[in-house]
């Protein structure tokens, strides 16, 4: 098949296929990277005219994009782009980024309000968020800058009410916590009754875009069929080998996640690590807080090698190009 035909086909491939195509040849690899970069730009162009200026600000202050916008990138589905862009930034950088967004004339954003948020407020606003600054974009859409109460910009992403939203996009990299599910438009979610009305609306959006939403991974029998059956009938078989056990400790960079950079050849990993840019710097280890209350017959809940029992998230530092995980306590006042 001629390369130009393959290149055209790549425009309609899913994300994993584009990443695989990038490894075939230099010519097709270059086209695949152009596809990824075009998707990256288009995601922000949905809100502002000059996407690169906005990406530059996000890079300078270590911010990432999450929510439905990140999901639309992972699925390569522009129809899922929302009217509100969720941006996450740590507390030590939030004030500077908020000021920059407000004062940059090229972006033409207008700060319309700020809300300080406590733990008792509704769940539709991402958890571990202490403040939300809302900007009106020139086209009438919104940018919501979420200041975090933790030192990891990925922390609120992994405590989302559904695995479908556990994705992020940074200026240089992107990640998906559960590609086995998300790329097939499947999602684990908690009970709607536990959340504010806004989450029910979110679940409706996912359903509209073809998502199959379940409360437990064992609801899809093909996954359980791939692992040894439980020796105790009152437990479920452990799905940790597939990185789908809800009680399992996870991190971006393990074999169950999808994590990659936009430019394979030119990305300076040492520089990203020095600047604490994702996927390096302060990241997060997590386990799902929904979907497995009954438990499996494995050791995930009480003897997980990554997270102690009862811990949902923990700050972590990612080091080396191969993405090694080191759990650590991070003082919010520290310069990390």
Features:
336 residues; alpha+beta; five-stranded mixed beta sheet; globular; F-box domain-containing protein
Estimate what percentage of residues fall within beta strands.
Answer: 15-25%
Question: What structural category do the secondary elements indicate?
Answer: alpha+beta
* Low-pLDDT segments, ≥5 res: 119-124, 327-336
Helix content: 25-40%
Query: Can you tell me the number of structural domains?
Result: 1
Number of helices: 11
Largest sheet: 5 strands, mixed
Q: Would you list the SSEs in sequence order as H and E? A: HHHHEHEHEEEEEHEHEHEEHEHEE
The general outline is globular
Tell how many strands the DSSP assignment holds: 14
Strand arrangement across the biggest beta sheet: 1-2-5-4-3
Alpha carbon gap, first and last residue? 50 Å
> Residue-averaged pLDDT, rounded?
85
The whole-angstrom Rg is 20 Å
Protein name: F-box domain-containing protein
What would your notes on this structure say?
This protein is α+β, with helices and mostly antiparallel strands and 336 residues long. It has one domain (46-327). It is 29% helix and 20% strand. The chain has helices spanning 3-10, 15-21, 26-45, 51-60, 67-75, 91-103, 179-182, 197-208, 221-224, 269-274, 300-303, and strands spanning 64-66, 84-89, 110-116, 129-136, 142-148, 167-169, 173-176, 186-188, 212-214, 250-251, 258-261, 281-286, 313-319, 324-327. A hairpin with a 4-residue loop joins β13 and β14 (324-327). α1 (3-10) runs parallel beside α3, α2 (15-21) packs antiparallel against α3 and α3 packs across α4. The model is unreliable at 119-124 and 327-336 (pLDDT under 50). This is F-box domain-containing protein. It comes from Trametes pubescens.
């Amino acid at each position: 098949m001629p390369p130009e035909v393959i290149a055209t086909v790549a425009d309609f491939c899913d994300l994993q296929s584009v990443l695989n195509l990038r490894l075939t040849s230099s010519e097709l690899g270059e086209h695949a990277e152009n596809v990824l970069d075009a998707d990256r730009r288009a995601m922000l162009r949905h809100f502002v005219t000059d996407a690169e200026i906005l990406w530059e600000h996000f890079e300078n202050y270590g911010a990432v994009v999450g929510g439905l916008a990140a999901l639309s990138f992972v699925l390569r589905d522009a129809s899922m782009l929302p009217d509100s862009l969720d941006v996450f930034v740590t507390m030590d950088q939030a004030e500077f980024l908020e000021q920059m967004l407000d004062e940059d004339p090229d972006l033409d954003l207008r700060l319309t309000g700020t809300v300080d948020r406590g733990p008792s407020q509704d769940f539709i606003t991402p958890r571990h968020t202490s403040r939300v600054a809302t900007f009106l974009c020139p086209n009438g859409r919104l940018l919501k800058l979420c200041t975090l109460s933790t030192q990891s910009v990925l922390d609120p992403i992994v405590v989302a009410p559904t695995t479908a939203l556990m994705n992020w996009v940074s200026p240089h990299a992107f990640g998906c916590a559960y590609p086995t599910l998300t790329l097939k438009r499947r999602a684990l979610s908690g009970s709607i009754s536990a959340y504010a009305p806004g989450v029910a609306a979110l679940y409706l959006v996912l359903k509209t875009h073809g998502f199959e939403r379940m409360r437990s991974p064992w609801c899809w029998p093909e996954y359980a069929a791939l692992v040894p059956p439980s020796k105790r009938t009152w437990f479920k078989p452990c799905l940790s080998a597939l990185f789908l056990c809800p009680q399992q400790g996870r991190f971006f960079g393990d074999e169950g996640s999808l994590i990659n950079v936009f430019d394979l050849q030119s990305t300076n990993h040492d520089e990203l690590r020095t600047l604490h840019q994702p996927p390096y710097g302060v990241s997060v280890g997590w386990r799902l807080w929904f979907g497995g209350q009954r438990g499996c017959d494995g050791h995930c809940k009480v003897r997980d090698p990554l997270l102690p029992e009862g811990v949902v998230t923990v700050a972590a530092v990612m080091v080396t190009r191969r993405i090694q995980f080191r759990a650590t306590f991070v003082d919010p006042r520290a310069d990390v």
